[in-house]
């Protein structure tokens, strides 16, 4: 992969020199000196002219990396984007949606974290984007996450999580996850999915089969789908802090090209991991195109 760094070329070169690196391993793109900036501005204006954007405003926005990066991907000058280190996630996702757009068949963007344990990898969704998704939205998030697991050669077993298990409560939150499970089964009959269910049962197959012999999970859940952003976000942070799992992400799903997010406290290793995921994501998309 060829890393591309967007920013002021003089500042980037000074930082590389200070760190003792040469610049031959990356490609620096300075938006202020980019030879296709007028072409980029014309295209951004074309995309957003009926959304209130003027051509001068398009030129101004392309001075900022959060707009210039998605335009590089849209224009074919980059295959994917890893961003957000210095901005709120929404400030990275919104330009990507406006410029790159949703992939065919997707109705929304969702996010996941890969929780890397000593002996397994779990997928948590959605701790990033959708605050209180409907049953239909949860079902789509579950199928997106299952597809992402398959992309990493992991066969997904999907648990639709709740405080209730198999009809134990008629609370709307429990009913939502129950209905979402039904929607996933109808849309993808071959996907192993079970719910609604409590989280400990999803991770303890022997206890699950003993208490609920009709359950169809068939083993320890790999994909954990939470009822809302709050529960998913709390869960991944607790597992990261208490169990020492490495949280890789956020990995975005639903966009037409690879775009992934860097949390503000990202380490160099985490940024490299996200870049590698973007590369794999781009290669998979190219292979099925």
TrEMBL record:
InterPro entries: P_Ac_Bu_trans, P_AcTrfase_dom1, P_AcTrfase_dom2, Phos_Acetyltrans/Butyryltrans, PTA_PTB. One of its GO terms (molecular function) is phosphate acetyltransferase activity. Keywords: Acyltransferase, Transferase. Residues 1-279 form the Phosphate acetyl/butaryl transferase domain. Pfam families: PTA_PTB. It catalyses: acetyl-CoA + phosphate = acetyl phosphate + CoA. Belongs to the phosphate acetyltransferase and butyryltransferase family. This is Phosphate acetyl/butaryl transferase domain-containing protein. It comes from marine metagenome. The lineage of its organism: unclassified sequences, metagenomes, ecological metagenomes.
């Amino acid at each position: 992969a060829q890393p591309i760094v967007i920013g002021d070329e003089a500042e980037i070169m000074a930082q590389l020199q200070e760190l003792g690196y040469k610049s031959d391993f990356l490609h620096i793109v300075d938006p202020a000196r980019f030879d296709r900036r007028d072409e980029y501005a014309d295209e951004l204006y074309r995309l957003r002219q009926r959304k209130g954007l003027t051509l001068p405003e398009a030129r101004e926005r392309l001075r900022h990396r959060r707009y210039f990066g998605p335009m590089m991907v849209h224009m074919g000058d980059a295959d994917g984007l890893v961003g957000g280190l210095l901005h709120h996630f929404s400030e990275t996702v919104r330009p990507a949606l406006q410029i790159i757009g949703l992939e065919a068949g997707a109705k929304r963007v969702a996010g996941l974290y890969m929780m890397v344990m000593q002996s397994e990898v779990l997928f948590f969704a959605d701790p990033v984007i959708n605050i209180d998704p409907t049953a239909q939205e949860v079902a789509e998030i579950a199928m997106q996450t299952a597809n992402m697991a398959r992309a990493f050669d992991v066969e997904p077993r999907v648990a639709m999580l709740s405080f209730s298990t198999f009809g134990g409560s008629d609370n709307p939150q429990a009913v939502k996850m129950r209905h979402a499970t039904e929607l996933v089964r109808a849309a993808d009959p071959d996907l192993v999915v079970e719910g609604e269910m409590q989280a400990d049962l999803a991770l303890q197959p022997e206890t699950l089969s003993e208490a609920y012999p009709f359950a169809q999970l068939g083993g320890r859940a790999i994909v954990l789908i939470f009822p809302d952003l709050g529960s998913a976000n709390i869960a991944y942070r607790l597992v990261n802090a208490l169990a020492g799992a490495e949280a890789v992400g956020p990995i975005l799903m639903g966009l037409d090209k690879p775009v992934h997010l860097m949390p503000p406290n990202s380490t160099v290793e985490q940024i490299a991991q996200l870049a590698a995921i973007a590369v794999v994501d781009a290669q998979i998309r190219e292979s099925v195109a």
